[in-house]
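DATA CLASS: polypeptide
GOAL: derive structure tokens

***
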Amino acid sequence: MEQFVILRVINNNVVLSVDHRGNEVILKGKGIGFQKKVDDVVSKDVVEKVYVLSNSSNKRILTYFEEIPFEFFELVDELFVRVSDSLSYVPNQDAVFSLVDHIHFAIKRYKENLLYKNPLLLEIKTYYPNEFQAGLVALDLIEEKTGVRLPEDEAGFIALHFVNTNLGMHMDATYLMTELLKGVMDVVETYYGMPLVEGSNDYVRFITHLKFFGQRLLNNSDHFKDEEFLSKVVKQRYPKEYACALKVQEYILETFDKQIGSEEVTFLAIHLARLMKRS
């Protein structure tokens, strides 16, 4: 059975250790550090979680465990279990720490009556419905474990943490992408002079396309080749949608200082044509 040697006891439930390969790791488990000291051995069967350290993350991860009560780590672990069926992705180490830190600070702010309004709450509900429902599950679990009922705005913020996990993006980028989605939808609805009808398969496909489009844009990656013939055909067949896509191109350049190519404009026009049912 694999065993770990304790380098430092952080608290009753967390120890800094070294594995049999000589790698520094943090071990989490209820009572794992109780009455333990340096050089004591911990058997693997009492370890609930192992967090691998790197030179760049050591100080930050240790700070999380030193400053945040153990119960918040248990809460987030249970949360990911509860939402695993609706969100079919596995949280990485950074996602866990980020969400633990957010929930801990959100409760602290709540107790100090420092509440944040979420300016993108409506967009989060619209573009990330599964993640938002997971955020509501988080509010229920937080209330169950701490007695604190956080406002719905926090479900939106928590939802973005789940989006981060899914897309592999940082919170700033995810928030920026949500703003981008909102801006693009505003451009489209203004152009057509009407709100888009939510809930249809074509609407969902359009939102999905915008998410991946936003991800490519913010990552400065481009997976499309410029197909001049296709662009010409789409421009001729769907002139109104192509013109709308050009409006989106203009908006992105003005707002985000990023230029999207003609191939992105073409595919955006195709999705718009399907959404608006033009043939």
In short: The CA atoms of residues 121 and 156 lie 6 Å apart. The mean pLDDT is 85. The chain is about 60% helix and 10% strand.
